[in-house]
């Protein structure tokens, strides 16, 4: 398969996933903009008296964490079952199997980009200036996308061989949500918990984007370097696991 054919098939699979996602939704694709805005409003109302006084631009601070974590969680959780969900196509066609996983990741990424529209409105409300540090936005988003793709490849194979993986991973995501400093400041937690959060790759990407977009500051090189290492390392591990076991997938499904 040529590169052009590869991208065409990937685009068609992604469009299919998007149509499936919004097929029974009244608001359709608009929901991807409305939902994160509603979540942000709810959290701000509930926690403003607790957190708002200690975190500058709290709604924007929360919005970044929510959007990026939801992308990671949605992409990896939907990728978990993608090989099982596409069993018939896997058997009948000779399409590269990694395309099915990648289409789920890109579908979640499209939803993330749509969620960035109301986020931009929140930034506008704060009159947040556009700074030179905005150049880091595509960099950190690309790193998060690569990291998430690697995790997605690994968990899709895991589910085929371990059907309890769905429940295990759902609980893992639920716990992970509290270790990305989404709605609180990392400075407020104990040293041990802070160490765990700072070594959480999802938090690294959230922190970098917050610094660049919300506060207009250049993120420390340590975070950028670690983000690159995590993205490259996880992608290599994920694709190696996927290629190692992809031929056994059909027999296991």
Which key features would you list for this structure?
253 residues; mainly alpha
If you had to describe this structure to a student in words, what would you say it looks like?
The protein is mostly helical and 253 residues long. The chain has one domain. 76% of the residues lie in helices and 0% in strands. The chain has twelve helices and no strands. α3 runs antiparallel to α6. It is globular, with a radius of gyration of 19 Å. The model has no long low-confidence stretch (mean pLDDT 85).
At a glance:
By secondary structure, this protein is mostly helical. 76% of the residues lie in helices and 0% in strands.
List the helices and strands and how they pair.
Elements lengths: L2 H20 L8 H22 L5 H23 L1 H4 L1 H6 L5 H28 L10 H26 L3 H12 L14 H8 L2 H14 L6 H25 L3 H4 L1
Largest sheet: none
Report the portion of residues in β strands: under 5%
- Overall pLDDT metric: 85
Q: Tell me the domain tally.
A: 1
- Distance from N terminus to C terminus (CA atoms, Å) equals 25 Å
What is Rg?
19 Å
Number of separate helices = 12
Instruction: Classify the secondary structure makeup into a structural class.
Output: mainly alpha
Regions with little confidence, pLDDT below 50 for 5+ residues: none
Count the E strands. 0
Outline, from the CA principal axes?
Answer: globular
**Can you give the helix content as a percent range?**
over 70%
SSE topology string: HHHHHHHHHHHH
């Amino acid at each position: 398969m040529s590169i052009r054919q590869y991208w065409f098939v990937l685009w068609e699979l992604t469009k299919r996933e998007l149509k499936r996602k919004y097929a029974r939704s009244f608001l359709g694709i608009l929901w991807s903009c409305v939902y994160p805005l509603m979540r942000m409003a709810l959290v701000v109302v509930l926690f403003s008296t607790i957190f708002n006084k200690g975190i500058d631009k709290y709604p924007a601070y929360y919005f970044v964490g929510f959007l990026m974590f939801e992308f990671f969680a949605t992409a990896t959780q939907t990728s978990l079952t993608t090989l099982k969900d596409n069993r018939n196509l896997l058997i009948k066609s000779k399409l590269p199997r990694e395309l099915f996983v990648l289409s789920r990741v890109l579908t979640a990424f499209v939803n993330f980009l749509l969620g960035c529209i109301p986020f931009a409105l929140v930034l506008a409300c704060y009159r947040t200036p556009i700074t030179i540090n905005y150049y880091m936005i595509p960099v950190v988003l690309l790193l998060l996308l690569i990291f998430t793709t690697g995790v997605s490849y690994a968990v899709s194979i895991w589910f085929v061989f371990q059907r309890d993986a769905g429940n295990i991973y759902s609980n893992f995501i639920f716990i992970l949500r509290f270790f990305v400093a989404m709605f609180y400041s990392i400075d407020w937690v104990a040293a041990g918990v802070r160490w765990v959060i700072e070594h959480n790759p999802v938090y690294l990407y959230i922190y970098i984007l917050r610094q660049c977009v919300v506060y207009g500051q250049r993120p420390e090189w340590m975070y950028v370097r670690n983000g690159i290492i995590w993205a490259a390392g996880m992608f290599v591990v994920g694709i190696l696991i996927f290629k190692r076991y992809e031929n056994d997938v059909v027999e296991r499904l």
